[in-house]
Amino acid sequence: MSESGRRLMQGNEAVVEASLVAGCRFFAGYPITPSTEIAELLASRLPQVGGRFIQMEDEIASMGAAIGASLAGTKAMTATSGPGFSLKQENLGFAALTEVPVVVVDVQRMGPSTGMPTAPSQGDIMQARWGTHGDHPIVALCPASVGETYAATIRAFNISEALRVPVVLLLDEVIGHMREGVAMADAQNVEIIDRKGPSVSPSEFLPYADDGTMVPEMAAFGEGYRHHVTGLFHDETGFPDMSAAVAKSLMQRIMGKLDAHRHVYEWTEARDTEEAEVLLVTFGSPAQAARSAINRAQREGMKVGEFRLITLWPFPEKALREAATGARAVIVPEMNLGQLRLEVERVMGCATPVYGINRTDGDIFKPDEIYQGIVEVYSG
Amino acid sequence: MSESGRRLMQGNEAVVEASLVAGCRFFAGYPITPSTEIAELLASRLPQVGGRFIQMEDEIASMGAAIGASLAGTKAMTATSGPGFSLKQENLGFAALTEVPVVVVDVQRMGPSTGMPTAPSQGDIMQARWGTHGDHPIVALCPASVGETYAATIRAFNISEALRVPVVLLLDEVIGHMREGVAMADAQNVEIIDRKGPSVSPSEFLPYADDGTMVPEMAAFGEGYRHHVTGLFHDETGFPDMSAAVAKSLMQRIMGKLDAHRHVYEWTEARDTEEAEVLLVTFGSPAQAARSAINRAQREGMKVGEFRLITLWPFPEKALREAATGARAVIVPEMNLGQLRLEVERVMGCATPVYGINRTDGDIFKPDEIYQGIVEVYSG
Amino acid sequence: MSSSEVRAEDPVVVDRHLCKACGICIAFCPKSVLGADGDGIAIVERPDECIRCRMCEFRCPDFAIVVRSEEDE
Amino acid sequence: MSSSEVRAEDPVVVDRHLCKACGICIAFCPKSVLGADGDGIAIVERPDECIRCRMCEFRCPDFAIVVRSEEDE
Amino acid sequence: MNTHLRKYFRQEHLPHIWCPGCGNGIVTAAILRALDRLGWEKDRTVFVSGIGCSSRAPGYLDFNTLHTTHGRALVFATGVKVAHPNLNVVVITGDGDASAIGGNHLIHAARRNIDITTICFNNSIYGMTGGQYSPLSPTDSVASTAPFGNTDRSFDLCRLVEAAGASYVARGTTYHVTPLTKLIERGFEKRGFSFVEAITACPVYFGRRNKMRTPVEMLEWQKDAAVPITRAQKMDPEELAGKFVIGTFVDIDMPEYTESYERLLREHASDRGGG
Amino acid sequence: MNTHLRKYFRQEHLPHIWCPGCGNGIVTAAILRALDRLGWEKDRTVFVSGIGCSSRAPGYLDFNTLHTTHGRALVFATGVKVAHPNLNVVVITGDGDASAIGGNHLIHAARRNIDITTICFNNSIYGMTGGQYSPLSPTDSVASTAPFGNTDRSFDLCRLVEAAGASYVARGTTYHVTPLTKLIERGFEKRGFSFVEAITACPVYFGRRNKMRTPVEMLEWQKDAAVPITRAQKMDPEELAGKFVIGTFVDIDMPEYTESYERLLREHASDRGGG
Amino acid sequence: MQKQLRLAGTGGQGQVLAGIILADAAVAYDAKYATQSQSYGPESRGGASRAEVVISDEPVDYPKVIEADLLLCMSQEAYDKYGADTADDGIILIDSTLVQVNPNSDSRIVARPITRVAREELGRAIVANVVALGVIIELTKAVSPEAARKAVSARVPPGTEEANLQALERGRRLARENPDSAQSECGASGVT
Amino acid sequence: MQKQLRLAGTGGQGQVLAGIILADAAVAYDAKYATQSQSYGPESRGGASRAEVVISDEPVDYPKVIEADLLLCMSQEAYDKYGADTADDGIILIDSTLVQVNPNSDSRIVARPITRVAREELGRAIVANVVALGVIIELTKAVSPEAARKAVSARVPPGTEEANLQALERGRRLARENPDSAQSECGASGVT
Ligand SMILES: Cc1ncc(C[n+]2csc(CCOP(=O)(O)OP(=O)(O)O)c2C)c(N)n1
Ligand SMILES: Cc1ncc(C[n+]2csc(CCOP(=O)(O)OP(=O)(O)O)c2C)c(N)n1
Ligand code: SF4
Ligand code: SF4
Ligand code: SF4
Ligand code: SF4
Ligand code: SF4
Ligand code: SF4
Ligand SMILES: [Mg+2]
Ligand SMILES: [Mg+2]
Predict the structure, then answer these.
(1) pLDDT tens digits, residue range A80-115?
(2) Distance between CA atoms of C58 and C62, rounded to whole angstroms?
(3) Could B292 and G61 be called an inter-chain contact, meaning their C-beta atoms sit closer than 8 Å?
(4) Residue C63: inside a domain, yes or no?
(5) Looking at A148, A173, A189, which one is the last position of a domain?
(6) Per the structure, how many domains does chain E have?
(7) What CATH topology corresponds to H2-176?
């Protein structure tokens, strides 16, 4: 299809193609702008690879079906945008507690509510972390270009399978609909991680036992390892147990597995941070305008660095702290009212002032706007 | 019924009785432990005062019906617990954007997912702020006793009506089910705030115009002020408008109205904070064990103060900063993994270290446990 | 007289500002009263044939047609 | 012999550990084979009347009853 | 526009956003004619809708109008109606809005038999989001999420609403616009839950993909495929394949929800209230 | 416990949590007897449930078992079945779980005619949360949220599921336990969506508040109020008031969802995949 | 003065109502402060049940029982679980009809055949909780008999006031009677 | 080298497809870098439509058009809205069949009867977007003709390849032809 080895595709299309490379063979969805192309493309792509596509009656159902498919041993994904992401929250929490691998794509549009369906936003950053009730483990990735979306999608599946944790892939309308040339992964050369199966016989199998990695082995329904899965607190047998001791150890393990395996999901990029007097903390599509602004500022002699997060949650606290060492100010450009900035402020403490450049009018950042912000902070 | 003027009631019952005093005449709900008593009691109490109770098919429906009733001019409430709170999020965002007064009670139980339905928790603190997609205005209150629940319920309605903002009342299983003597408000002597009606004729009425207070006047359906309500971004006429200018000014107004009216909802309590070397930041039912622990520490000569938040969101940043002046450490006891602590850390900056005392095993804090924490921090 | 003007005596009036040229009124007029201009906008071509059945008005998706009742005239 | 012991020859066996004393088996046994002890736990009072219809077994909500098939014996 | 319908429109918002030949305008006008015949007051009438092309209709209508979240119009409408039983409450919804994400609210409103009239604009497709199949898209029809033809079976939504307990259930088409208007009018008059399914055209997403290239072809199809109920009763299933039945399916009187509740209120209101 | 049923239980989890006289155990045993007759393998069978007293049943059964979120059992089950069409998938649900919060998933599973057997434990109440009325609670019955008697009307859930498109629909009771077992067995055998409503007793919350003080009285009521379908067809509506019909309502063969999809897969699988 | 009372047993025995009556008596009729709380099994089905009441002359700063001044045990499990959390000078009140404990094993134990008295003398096992209440107020003086009577009348199901007041008085007397043998009362463990 | 191209008009005219073809030509066949984006009306219904393409020899650092090197206007609104955001040395390509602009008013304006040529000469108004594409590549050299031909073949609906390649060539020729009078082409505003 392409002579250059790169293929022009939309961000949503990159999700689709990468998910297939990652081994996704089940998608349940419900259309919503601006994520719909993911469902539309998978409706024809999945059958071609022997996978299964189902359009469910709503987003709650899509989330549940994806979890069910995953429990049956199939890598599964669902995709949506703000309103649908709100609806998926209850079942997303179920996946977190029962440790079912699943990838949830949220192509962010301007909210709250129906908001501006065709306008980009990064308004669901905090929701991705806190949208379901109760403390829970979750990983969220937020790529900044179409090419990176392709890579992040594969990584999302890998993280989800490796750690048995739901992974939220946060795009936004800009990335979802933008087309760029993407170097397609060669399926043979990409690292693909599959969940770890039982290492013992069915009679010895404990579906929620810690084998030392904090990530239990997982058996698929139908494989002979009959077991019980419940959204109630449960002990290592999988059966409900409401005792304080069990609750405590379950919470410790499902949260602790993320702490223990940062390398699996932590993904950041530092550029010129060593010398930087002003550090931009960027993520998602605004990173492109920021990059352009930083280049200009650097050309003009300013010592500006960039710390870009692809993994937003768990927040790469330590990496940020390191990158920001020496900076006298931090700037966080976001297409929201400053959600990630809250976390950056927390991590920075009072040592380094944190400024936001924010937009919630449905428009995207122009490089100039961020450049102006840099100049102000740099000279101010 | 009582000779002492105080009446023994459960937290859930206090919500019910206080809501009626506040003028609530509509409740839509769906049962869920540990909030169910609110629905059960209102099913008989509302008809007695000419109000209406409806049990809906689920929590999404309950949230929607409450908003509909409010638009028809009736003060309305719904109540739930974690799983249901997750489901209400989409429509909660609708209320936030369309500025419909409504009170949502979340009696927190241990999550994530079905979790431990009869165990207390404060795991929905962040969800109350961030559960729906997109930036949005919201107020959350979290009382620490049954008596305060009574007062907070009245206040929740007042805030909601005064600012046209959804108010989340966060209880937990302990408060919801605990009984205490409550001094009932005398309906005549309690301040009750009603939404402000149109001051102009129907032909001049602009349903989302800023009259200078940032809180638009509100007309009920059927009153002759025909207007349009939509979850899309809209201009002051109420009709959809996707332009950047309109989006920006709408976001500024609905967020700004909260900044402008802090006194309406901000509610904190500082005790012995002036001299305090160690400050406990408390909220909700653990404040009771903390109080007991603080008393003991003070008796033993430690300079320990308490800053208690009844209003959690918008976070009382300035008040906390003032209360913490001079403290060399802050302790936040929470029945979660440290959700409010994140915000306290952010506000404190690196000036003051923040420690958490946390529990997520379904058990409640004993005073001793918090006392031990105080001693450690105090001497450490 | 250009076709876009309303003739006072027409039984049927098309609002050119609202018409989106869908062709429905034209196709289903039982008396072939209506036609289209170059942009597909409905025009009243044979007003005298009109039986004022109002089907064109009822089926116009754009509220662009009014059939005058005889009393109106 | 106390009523809580299983008699080898009984056509019907009640598992006292599982029985919750609901009374269903007793009320609906067509032959009044079953009775209750002081705690309401089902006991086999008239084993000889039993026609092995198995209704007691099928209707026991607690999986507490087994009616032996004749072959079992 | 008909002069005596003009007062019902928010003129300044026209022309509407719907595509050329979209049937939504035809149904909307039918609703207004029905309502006009009954003399409903604008101030006492509330239109509630969900999300979809069809759900944009209330924005053009000069009533109390409420454009809610996807699939939830009926729950907001229930809140309005229960809080204020004297208002006329009408729900405008699409086939996706009503039968996919909103299916549960539809059957529960019917079960309660609450006095709301629901008009479902059935264009057999999710129009607003660009042509994915809906629970009312025919099996084998092509849609953006059914590139190889729809493997799902579709609801007979009228049958479902009838089974759920509605007092009034009917189906019409935009081709048969005069009978459609009468069905809507009867739905409005009915005390209890009324449901009118209006078969309408999305020429852009349903028509083009399914061999009906123009709005006119879509109306031709409505004309040809619709079988009046009286005739349908005499036909056997094979003859009815690929067709749909129009007319009134249910028109009965049953206890209405808000009336039952008002009775409860009269019986149990007490001075214990105080509150 | 019957010896050849014993192998289907997770013995170590008995006795179960259900109250004395609760009908859930009766239905559960009937399910196992039906399944045993068909010789279903434990490893190839998945039980999925929602939340409620009844939904705790799978925890006691030695199969692949999945206890999900309230009302959502069918969507998880759909995911399991579509991903792995060779598994036998059974959903256990309560009247609230299936018809209140889960109503939409129920009708959509029926519409798709996906090969899942759903057993609804209908005890006319929300048992788990302590006795609030459900969409299947009779009008005028008393519940904790209907202290003055229920003003809601109730669904005929079998009728609803039939209208939604299921291949097999039946109703039985715990009193009529032998026929109930047969109905379940037939539901299991059916390719397509099967639905069996099992009328069962919650003596604690439904019975006590509604003048049936003991489990025995509740079974007596089942015995008296149930009318076999053959008899019901000859009765007029007044005679049927306060009664309910038991038996098989639908038993037909129609295209099943996963089979239709497998056909699509065969026709469209291509080497374009690669992925 | 502060009293911490814990009433424990199996669901359905009415501990929660007894706790509510105690707290109500204190709050509404003795003008004291009180908090009452309870615990449930998972999703409120079956199993152990426990009610706690803290009664005090001043506002209660911690609403739960930390060390009970009195523990009522109406099941074996209750004794096994909470016996240890009772104050050194506290009282462990055993319903000897249901619980098998050697009264000599612990000086704090007071054993009374509460359920038997309710069933046999008062003809209704269901009033055992109010009999226990009578015993408790007599042993602890946590609330006044007068307040207890008023609270019982206000809180029991309409129509059962008389029977319950009688049970209360019988309980108070029972407190003062000599205990009969605790051992002989108790059957097998019975109900789940 | 970097080229910023903006193609604007009304929904249904195929600007987005033209933009995709341009970007595809650059990425897949000229081995350049490109980004393509578009804007929609509210929830994708009706109204203005706009596609943007940035083509560069190096990775594109900002994916949207800031100042267009070429603006294609296929509606009056497009000209009114974006005319100003065109580079001083940029090109404003006007479809003179649809847009009424005085070509002398702005030296950057190039007017060509794109839609008329498509309709009358090629017999299908629908290929106007590809005619425009031909004009654009001829005027800007943003992509090579060879790459454009390959991208057209790959991206247009199957069966229409020939007609579209013909349109592309006709567009390239049209770019070199003398403009006819822009004014005389334009009808009323027409479609909403
Ligand atoms: C929760 C949620 N999910 C999905 C959407 C996206 N969405 C908007 S309209 C629509 C379907 C509209 O179809 P229908 O109801 O048939 O209306 P039509 O546009 O065809 O009139 C969808 C899926 C949304 N807005 N909210
Ligand atoms: C989202 C959500 N809402 C509400 C609940 C609370 N809840 C648990 S079970 C139940 C109803 C159970 O009724 P039913 O399905 O009839 O089952 P039963 O207990 O009667 O067997 C409810 C409302 C919940 N767990 N999750
Ligand atoms: S009124 Fe009837 S006859 Fe006259 S133009 Fe309209 S459709 Fe034709
Ligand atoms: S039906 Fe209406 S919109 Fe269509 S062509 Fe006729 S007048 Fe124009
Ligand atoms: S098998 Fe039949 S006869 Fe025998 S005890 Fe059981 S119910 Fe009675
Ligand atoms: S039916 Fe079962 S639980 Fe009930 S009394 Fe008989 S044996 Fe016991
Ligand atoms: S997309 Fe379809 S339903 Fe929507 S306005 Fe256009 S024609 Fe109508
Ligand atoms: S509450 Fe009702 S349904 Fe639940 S276990 Fe007890 S009797 Fe059964
Ligand atoms: Mg539709
Ligand atoms: Mg039930």
Answers:
(1) 999 999 999 999 999 999 999 999 999 999 999 999
(2) 10
(3) yes
(4) yes
(5) A189
(6) 1
(7) Pyruvate-ferredoxin Oxidoreductase; domain 3 (3.40.920)
Asked, for residue A29, whether it belongs to a domain, the answer is yes
Nearest CA distance, H84 vs chain A (angstrom):
16
G78-87: average pLDDT:
88
Whether C4 shows a pLDDT value over 60: the answer reads no
Contact D61 F26 (CB under 8 A): yes
Domain that holds residue D58: 17-67
Q: Identify the CATH number of the domain in which residue D26 sits.
A: 3.30.70.20
Whole-angstrom CA distances from E242 to B3, E139, F229, G100 are 75, 10, 32, 76
Report CA B315 to chain centroid distance, whole Å: 11
Mutating to test ligand 6, I would choose from D6, D26, D60, D63 the residue with most ligand atoms within 8 A of its C-beta, which is D60
Residue nearest to atom 3 of ligand 5 (CA): D50
Burial class from Cβ neighbours inside 10 Å (0-12, 13-18, 19+) for residue A203 reads exposed
For residues F265 and E248, give the distance between their C-alpha atoms in angstroms, rounded to a whole number: 40
Helix, strand, coil share of chain D (percent; to 5): 20, 15, 60
Q: Going by beta carbons, is chain B in contact with chain E, meaning 3 or more pairs sit under 8 Å apart?
A: yes
The total number of residues shown for chain B amounts to 380
Residue closest by Cα to atom 4 of ligand 6: D22
Which ipTM score applies to this complex? Answer: 0.96
CB contact under 8 A, B1 and G42: no
Question: pLDDT (tens digit, 9 = 90+) per residue, C19-73?
Answer: 999 999 999 999 999 999 998 999 999 999 999 999 999 999 999 999 998 765 5
Amino acid identity at H27: V
Q: How many residues does chain A have?
A: 380
Establish if A204 belongs to a structural domain: no
In the structure, do chain E and chain A come into contact, i.e. share 3 or more CB pairs under 8 Å? yes
Task: Answer whether F198's CB lies under 8 Å from F50's CB.
Answer: no
Distance from the Cα of residue E123 to its chain's centroid: 11
Chain A residues in contact with G41 by the CB 8 A cut-off are: 242
Q: Are strands A311-313 and A139-141 parallel, antiparallel or unpaired?
A: antiparallel
The parts of chain F modelled with pLDDT lower than 50 are 271, 273-275
Chain mean position to CA C7: 11
Distance CA B292, CA G4 (A): 15
Smallest CA–CA distance, residue F96 to chain B, in Å, is 9
Q: What is chain F's length? A: 275
pLDDT of residue H44: 43
A302-360 residue pLDDT tens:
999 999 999 999 999 999 999 999 999 999 999 999 999 999 999 998 889 999 999 99
Residues in chain E with CB shorter than 8 Å from the CB of A118 are: none
Q: Which chains touch G (3 or more CB pairs under 8 A)?
A: A, B, D, F
pTM value surpassing 0.80? yes
Q: How far is the CA of H90 from the centre of ligand 2 (A)?
A: 66
Q: Above pLDDT 70, what percent of chain G?
A: 89
Tell me the residue range of the domain where A173 lies. 3-189
In a domain, A8, yes or no: yes
Task: Identify the segments of chain B with pLDDT beneath 50.
Answer: none
Work out whether strand H2-10 and strand H48-56 pair parallel, antiparallel, or are unpaired. antiparallel
F191 touches chain E (CB under 8 A): no
